[in-house]
Amino acid sequence: MKTLMIITVAVTGNLFAEWLNFNAGAIIENEPIEEFNKVWNDCLTFDVELRGLSVDTLTEDAVKYLRFTNTPGIILSDRTGLPELPIVRCFVWVPDSTDLSFSYSANCAEVISCLPVYPVPIDSLVVDQSSGYFIGEFFTEDSIAYISSDWYPNHLVEYVDELRFRDARIAIYDVYPVQYLAVNDSLRVWSDIQVTVSFDETTSKWPVIDTGYFCSRANNSILGYTKDDNPWIPVPGLVMRPTDLTAGPVRVPDYVILTAAGLDGSWIDSLARHRADLCGFDVAIIRTDSVLSQFSNSQPITPLAIRDFTETMWNWGQPSSSKRPSYLLLIGDSEDPIYGSSDWYLPSHSYEEGLWKGDNSIYDDEWYVYFDEPYSTYHSIPDMMVGRISVRTTQELQGFINVIRGYEAASTIPAPDTLMWRRHLSFFKGEFGPQWKPDSSYVDSLRQWCGYTWDYVFGGDFRPYTTSDGSTMSSLEWDSLLDSSLSRGQQLVVYTNHGIPHVFSAGMDWNEPVPPEFQGLPDSTFDCFDVDSLSESSFIPHGYPFIINACCSTGRFAHTIAEHTDFDDRFYFCFNDNPNAGPVFDYGIDSISEKFLKHPDAGAIGFFAGSGATGISGYDRLAHGLMEAILYYGQTRMGDAIASMRFRELPSRISANIALYDLLGDPAVDLGDRVKFRNSCDLIVAPPDLELLRYPAKPSGTGTAANLSVTVRNAGAVASGDFDAELDIEICELNYDTTLTESFSCIAAGNESTVTFDGWRVPSGITSDMELIMTCEADPDRNCNDSWTPNNSAVREISILDFYPCDSGWPIRVAGSIKSPPVLADLNNDGDLEIVFVQGNAHVCAVDPSYPDTLMWESQAYMINPRIGSGFSIPTVADVTGDGNPEVIFDTIDKLVVLDGSDGDYMDSFAHDTHTRIWQNFPQTVVVSDLFIDDDVPLPKNEIAFVASDMLYILRYQSDGLARIDSVTVVSADEELTTAWLTAGELDGNTGSDLILSTTYYSSVVNSLIGLYSSHKPGTFYETRTWKGLNFSTIPAVGDFGSGNLIAVSKRISSTHNPNPVDLIEPLDLSTAACCSTSSATRSIRVFCCVIADWVASSAFDRIIAPAENQCFVFEADGEEDWNYEYADPSPRRPPFPALGDLDGDGKTDLLVGTRDGFVNAFTPDGREVSGFPYTLPSEVFGGFVIADIDNDRHVEVVFGTMDNYLHVWELGSCDAGYSPWLQVQHDSERSGAQE
Fold first, then answer.
1. What CATH number has the domain spanning 18-219?
2. pLDDT of 158-193, one tens digit each?
3. Are strands 327-331 and 385-389 parallel, antiparallel or unpaired?
């Protein structure tokens, strides 16, 4: 068991952080991998792979705890007082009209000793220094849970809920890759979890869904959904004012305006026409009085009536049209219902839940578009992109519509100086108490990448006499800097700190004003008064920013008159009319977000903020998601950017927090260049778009490999035309620098293209401790009419794990982990060798190496491998029918199955008792050998032998199918088999092969047994030997060492160091012929198997090889140690099966071994590493390796699978055409372990 050592890499208060790798490991800060596999008729599967965690150490009451708060891509469990563990929340598209069930399999477990895991804290509303609210955490611990001797949780996957998103049924599953054992402070980490969602194939339906303008946002967030291209090709749309709101307009709209009746007028038609012409939207305009008359029996209009209307609107044109609306703009202000007769009244939906009660209740416009969800669902994925223009007068509305039209008015390239604010970003950050996010370093790197200037205003606690938290200015200076920055304008503003409806609370001071140190309220803050005082610069026209507020309450547009006048509630700080208690002021009804929208000359184009108290821990995800959506991914409409952020942060946002944030502004307003510069493209290359393949190839000789890919997107208004991209590759440790060039075909507006750079020759000397610096520039020659070129280039630094000798077209990703070792065989008599492998737990598949992109066949589903545990079933390929053609034979949980090798069709099966422990925790094999010699029916090697439950079965495939020839009871009823392995070979001098059964069984203690079976003495084992109290779990090899066959037995001893990891056993009486003793002082508790080789070119075998978890032993035939190699990166778990073959083309047989942590090495007969080895993989090799020239190209190939769903073919040294030294586990269908 590993022990977790905390290495300090960052310090914040009492917090220490480390990146914890486990199993095959991961590059620091890699998110968990969620991969959708495939849909079958009755099920679908997806994988979750976790390779690392960010581990924080903090102290509570002098006790150190672990927390996982900073691991990207995860959320944390929320059961108060219980261990706070990481969760990967998965959203899966599932069919309609069927019940769902799920199961899961989990592999690659590692147990790690650790500190206690921090308990889930209590969330509570906290009054901060400004007496505003925010959500804080308080320590609490369930005392019973923290003395438990059970792993928590006791399951790894749970169904959470389901929701509907634009007609798609989305099921939500929480995957728990980490369990905690409190009694001895241990973590059990599962690196590979596959979830199977099952449904009724006779009733299930997959509807056609219209994701509309959401398509690119949903693609990477909903498993099973693949986006369609949605290019920017606006065709003028239609503006409609339907009278019958049930029947709807003549066309399904893209964009719906719902306006308070008293605010309607020609100005709304002008906005609708603007959207129809600019965006190509079909637009519907609806008035609240129409909704009231058709969906309500009483006044005033209510949120329920509006929801009834929007649900009806959602079904306009159905089912004949697949189109659905995408944008909803609300025009009007929300107030208490007593103001419902006001002509500006358009209520928001409010509710109270959990912490959000009373004055901190949630106002959520997006509730109106939670279609097909119960009205009692208060937080979900909105089916449309929603915004509100919160005004009460037509003058305010007309002013803001004019701002929108001016903001999106066309301009020319080169852009005039008056538009330079569009290339500016402002980041305002205050500090008091918690560490506020996002970090300035992140924002700085983002704006530098896109070539923006910026204002960075950081104020600490604004007290000049202390610098304990980094104060850099006074409150007056803060106020002044924000005033000058916001008067000038910028494309984006990000603010993070405390907030209340009228105030950015950073800098707030509640003491009696004593200038200049203490300013009091409102002088110490940036507030509604400051917004009113903003004025357009006399030199540069004001740039209306999109303001992103990572704080509480500043987006509370539904702040009511009653709330405003409730002076007893200090939460709002709306006014103070007491001259003896601070400055007298009255902020008015409008929140600061509304003030920005209503300012005609120096306001904002949009404001995204919370309507109540929000969780600080989500601020970085909110800000990162929005800025990257706009700048990286070209999602420049405000609603699109918000949807992109929410899809990206789905795991953490399906909570009350998703409903806390609202957009004030038109969701279709475009912040980008495509509406401003309508004759230009806008090519974007962002740092995440530069990728090194997961398994980058290292070609032999002077060859090159396609290891590097770059994605370029076009966020502009027109197609780009063809262009080149230059990719510079730098490896500082090698003083290496080279530049590649590839061509991109024309990218349509709104689309993206990925190109692989084929011409890179990987330099020699590259190792896993080096960093690869990729720098790419799209269109360096400036052939495209591009509106902004600084964002055409990006730099990314990638940690190198390794480069691999991948054959062309390999590896391929398949629909499940590859736990069992593959088999090589000519299945279709075409002269090359096909690859047979087990995909996931349920399907045997074959692939032709000439066509790696398509499976040759896939079997029906069987329970082949256990869902939990280290066991796996190994298929074999042999001729069991006597027709000269190969069959595929494998065991499952309750039957042995035979398939036609040419097409995978079912031939027959043999039912047996359900497997128990021998299948759960150890490899399970089938042996095919000529056990019974029948002169009348000469069927070569046609018997099938396997062990199930407590029975050895011998089968033969007769003319009518499988028939039992013999069976032998292995252990008595009061004993339990824990492992079982079969090997066939000639042992007793009689015709026909014999069987060697190697088992461990439990009978008060664990015992090891070897039994010999011969067809000449059916019904029994003719010889047995038992090692009482010893657990060998051996997989033997058998062969002639010069004086007849011997059995090489690996000996797994877990209690003490064993100097004899291998014994040679006489087959006649099972006595020990020789003990193979090692000089290694390193203990090996998993000496897994034996293989034997002829390395001295004699007529007999002369070497016994026994790989373990941490070293490899090689012995001579007399038991003397030849050599031993200790691995630099050992694994605590059972190693994969080894293989023998000439890997480097020197005519000598080499040894190929590995560890379960992804380490692969090869050795020559004298113990030297084969050139090019070792290799380090990013995933586990669970099963083992096979070796042959599979495609007759006179190069030897190594074939294996990894637990990340990849099937690999490596091309190594030269060989004779058709060279096939090791086709199956332990060499052959007899599992002899001996290379002939």
1. 2.60.40.3800
2. 999 888 888 889 999 999 999 999 999 999 999 899
3. parallel
